[in-house]
Design a protein that fits this description.
This protein has two domains: 4-129, MutM-like, N-terminal (N-terminal domain of MutM-like DNA repair proteins); 143-257, Helicase, Ruva Protein, domain 3 (Orthogonal Bundle), CATH 1.10.8. Strands 1-6-7-5 form a four-stranded antiparallel beta sheet. Strands 2-3-4-8 form a four-stranded antiparallel beta sheet, covered by helices on one side. The chain has a two-stranded antiparallel ribbon with strand order 9-10. The protein is elongated and about 55 Å long. The protein is built from seven helices and ten strands. The chain is of the alpha+beta class and 262 residues long. Helices cover 30% and strands 23% of the residues. Strand 2 (51-57) and strand 3 (60-65) form a beta hairpin. Helix 1 (4-18) runs parallel beside helix 7 (195-217) and helix 6 (172-182) crosses helix 7.
C-alpha cells in the first residue's frame, strides 16, 4: 500500500509530467474510486483547466488547479500514476485519464479499487472531514506536537504510528521500518517510553521517511540495513544477524527482529 514516501514520489512524478499544461480532455470512469462527484461532472470541471502546483498530506496527493479547485488522490493498495503519449497502448484499471495540450496523457490506475479521487473546494475542510492528523514532514510539525499526541496514550507503538488521526502518512511497512531502525519492539506501549526514547522515536520517524523518499526517487534500492529488504519470516536481520519474525500486530502483518527489538 502506498504510504507517505511513495506518495511523495508520485507527487514529484506528477510535477514533472502534469503541471502548467492545459487539460484538453478528461475521461473519468464511473466507479467507487471517484468520491463525492459524478464521473461526468469531474470530466467537465477538469477539461480546460490546468494544474498549477501540488502538495502532499500524509497519503494524499493534492493538485491545485488554475480555477482554485483541488484534485485530491489517495492510492489505496494498488493505485499509481502513469504518464504516456498518444501512441501508448490503452491500459486497464484506469479510473481517470487526463489528456494535456502537449499530447501526453496521465492515467490514475487502481486495479483493486481501494483508492479514491476527490474534487474539492477547500483542502483544510477536506482534511478535517477525513480527521487526519498532521503530516510528519511538514516544517511546522515538531517534537512538542508529537509528544502532546503521545501523552496519555496506552496503545502499542505500531498502532500509534499507523493511526492516521494522530500522524498522517505512516502505514504498515514504514511503521515497522521506523521501529526496526530504533531497535524497539512494535508491541511496546507508547506510555512506557521515557521522554528521551520518545524523542528518539520522533527523530527516527523523520529520518526514515526522508531517507525513504530519497531512495524511492532513485529507483527503490534501499540501504542494506533496512528491514524493507528483508520482510520475510525467518530471514536474517541485516543489523545484528538475528531472526526476522512476522506477527500480527495492530491488525497487520508486522516484521521485527527478535534479537535487537526485544
Amino acid at each position: 500500500m502506498p504510504e507517505l514516501p511513495d506518495v511523495e514520489t508520485f507527487r514529484k512524478y506528477f510535477n514533472k509530467t502534469s503541471l502548467n499544461r492545459e487539460i484538453k480532455k478528461a475521461v473519468a470512469v464511473k466507479s467507487r474510486v471517484i468520491k463525492g462527484i459524478s464521473a461526468g461532472a469531474l470530466q467537465s470541471r477538469l477539461t480546460g483547466d490546468s494544474f498549477t502546483s501540488s502538495d502532499r498530506h500524509g497519503k494524499y496527493l493534492i493538485a491545485s488547479t488554475s480555477k482554485n479547485k483541488f484534485l485530491i488522490m489517495h492510492f489505496g493498495m494498488t493505485g499509481s500514476l502513469q504518464n504516456f503519449n498518444n501512441s501508448g497502448e490503452p491500459m486497464k484499471h484506469v479510473h481517470l485519464l487526463l489528456e494535456f495540450d502537449n499530447g501526453c496523457r496521465l492515467a490514475y490506475r487502481d486495479p483493486r479499487k481501494f483508492g479514491a479521487i476527490y474534487f474539492e473546494d477547500n483542502v483544510e475542510d477536506f482534511l478535517k472531514r477525513k480527521k487526519l492528523g498532521p503530516d510528519p514532514l511538514k516544517n511546522n510539525y515538531n517534537f512538542s506536537g508529537f509528544k502532546k499526541a503521545a501523552d496519555g496514550k496506552k496503545e502499542n507503538l505500531k498502532a500509534f504510528l499507523m493511526d492516521q488521526s494522530i500522524i498522517a502518512g505512516i502505514g504498515n511497512v514504514y511503521s515497522d521500518e521506523i521501529l526496526f531502525q530504533l531497535g524497539i519492539h512494535p508491541e511496546k506501549q507508547i506510555n512506557k517510553l521515557s521522554k528521551l526514547k520518545l524523542k528518539e522515536l520522533f527523530i527516527s520517524m523523520k529520518k526514515v521517511l526522508k531517507e525513504s523518499i530519497k531512495y524511492e526517487s532513485s529507483g527503490g534500492k534501499f540501504p542494506d540495513d533496512y528491514l524493507l529488504n528483508y520482510r520475510k519470516n525467518d530471514s536474517e536481520c541485516p543489523q545484528c544477524g538475528g531472526k526476522i519474525k512476522m506477527k500480527t500486530i495492530a491488525g497487520r502483518s508486522s516484521y521485527f527482529c527478535i534479537n535487537h527489538q526485544k
